[in-house]
Amino acid sequence: MSVLMSEIIGRSLDDLLEEPTFLTELKDGYREKAFKSLAAILSTPNHVHKAFLRIVLENDEVVRIPAYRIQHNNTLGPYKGGIRFHESVNEDEVVNLAALMTLKNALHEVPFGGGKGGVAINPREYDVRELYQICKKYVQYFSDILGPDKDIPAPDAGTGEREMNWMMSEYKSIRPGQRYRGSFTGKSVMNGGSLGRREATGKGVYFTLRYFLKDYLTENQQQLSESDNPIAQTALAYRDRKLKLAVQGFGNVGSVAALEAVHCDHLSNQVVAVSDRNVTLYHPEGLNIPALVQFTAMNRGDLPQTAEELAEAGVQAEVLDREDILYMDVDVLVLAALENQIHQDNVSRVQARIMVEGANAPITEEADTMLTQQGAIIIPDILANAGGVIVSYLEWLQGRETQFYSEDEVFKQLFDKMSTTMKAVYPAYMGTGKSLRQVCYNQAIMKLSANLYLQGKLF
Ligand code: NAD
Q1: CATH code of the domain in which 320 resides
Q2: What is the pLDDT of residue 27?
Q3: Last residue of a domain, one of 190, 213, 239
Q4: What is the dihedral of CA 372, 377, 383, 387, to 10 degrees?
Q5: Which partner from 233, 291, 328, 457 sits 20 to 30 angstroms from 143, CA to CA?
Q6: 457 among known catalytic residues
Q7: How are beta strands 268-275 and 279-282 bridged, if at all?
Q8: Over the stretch 159-195, which tens digit does the pLDDT of each residue have?
Q9: pLDDT of the residue at 3
Q10: How many CB atoms lie within 10 A of CB 108?
Q11: Residue 181, domain CATH
Q12: Which atom of ligand 1 is nearest to the CA of 253?
């Protein structure tokens, strides 16, 4: 993430200082001091934990691998956030992602704080026994600070159910007789995970788009059609169109979002392009997404890259370069791969006018400002990709109660929670002229600040 969350938090607080309905109890000089306290508290993490994991490789070589657990803020509940396995992991990145988790949980009223973890490896370069050791060592090194009521990790890029299963098992061994099911979320269903957790983020990503273009616009059509806000006019024009979508990243998030789009009865969609770390696939009449999901499941997550592989998948498509997906003539671009994909140097080539951030920070701040000024609609990460942490919360609850919900119940609760958030942020987006991202940050910081004030932390 190129932009520092501490700067974003500072800007939101500057905005909120002028907001007369926010923390009305705080007056005059005391209000300014309280805002300085808020900036100090929210722009720094509570704890930065770093370790060098000692791992014996299969060839008997010993290596030490940098690993992090950052605990940003626990005002609203135990720290919560994923563990990323990626070669670019570093302390600043993990601190930033932990702060984003604090704000994401606050925005959606998930009773957790914000945390994040990372291990600086490319997991594709390690075999399964080495990865198992890395997971065990991570828990051993950080076991004192983790736990169902302290800090609850989940999967992130490079980790998944398997790693969470191993980590929970190690936690259970280190703390026999203690509660352990809620120590990690994103586990396999057979191992105490929740039905629907795997699909939750992708479903949530698509739901934010559908809810905006269908539910919110339809419910508020009259008022919006009379509004002089150009965003409202753009959005209304898109609502009744057949939408062409492109989805960057075809992993857990992107593939589920693409499936949701093709199965949606509320909007008329065609997913004309998808991409992964190797290629972009394009078909002007729409791609066979279920067939691509099936193919990737059998091929280590990779999309077909050759005519033979496309034939094997039963998919008709043109094979283009990986980056081409960003510049296609589509209505909606779902960014579900990595951070920093649209930036100052390529933003002018982007044609989509609606973008949905499935990944964290795929659009840099400079690009975001330019797109927003041009009237593009950006549904930001903090709103769009919260489905994972919302269902992680449901998994944690189910583990506590040892009562498990049906998949329908999980998705109902997921969509109810996201709808509640959207009912608050979409009207503010249409009414204030601020970007949706800024509206989300402001609302998250308002909720956190009110709690900090009520808990007596501002003096
Ligand atoms: P994943 O590893 O399952 O899939 C990532 C996809 O992106 C793969 O298809 C991969 O081939 C593709 N990709 C990698 N490099 C690329 C590149 N340079 N260009 C185009 N595509 C590329 O990961 P995921 O779980 O789907 O997560 C995707 C993003 O969403 C990550 O940034 C993650 O941090 C974020 N996220 C995930 C969740 C979750 O619950 N999984 C929740 C919130 C945010």
Answers
A1: 3.40.50.720
A2: 78
A3: 190
A4: -140
A5: 457
A6: no
A7: antiparallel
A8: 999 999 999 999 999 999 999 999 999 999 999 999 9
A9: 60
A10: 24
A11: 3.40.50.10860
A12: 26
Measuring from each residue's beta carbon to the nearest atom of ligand 1, which residues come in under 6 Å?
156-157, 201, 248-254, 275-277, 301, 322, 336-338, 358-360, 385, 388
pLDDT of residue 24: 81
Q: Which atom of ligand 1 is nearest to the CA of 296?
A: 9
Identify the segments of the chain with pLDDT beneath 70.
1-3
pLDDT one-digit tens code per residue, 20-74: 778 888 777 788 888 888 999 999 999 999 999 999 999 999 999 999 999 999 9
Are 328 and 246 in contact, with CB atoms under 8 Å apart?
A: yes
Domain that holds residue 241: 198-385
Query: H or E segment at 115?
Result: strand 114-119
Given 190, 215, 246, which residue is the final one in a domain? 190
Minimal-distance CA residue to ligand 1 atom 1: 251
- Prediction pTM value: 0.94
Nearest CA to ligand 1 atom 17: 277
Spatial distance between the Cα atoms of 142 and 287, rounded to a whole number of angstroms: 45
Q: What is the pLDDT of residue 2?
A: 46
- State how far the alpha carbon of 205 is from the alpha carbons of 255, 258, 261, 340, 405, in Å: 11, 10, 10, 18, 22
Together in a domain, 1 and 95: no
What whole-number distance in Å separates Cα of residue 30 and Cα of residue 126? 55
Residues 254, 360: one domain?
Answer: yes
Q: Within this chain, do residues 112 and 243 fall inside the same structural domain, yes or no?
A: no
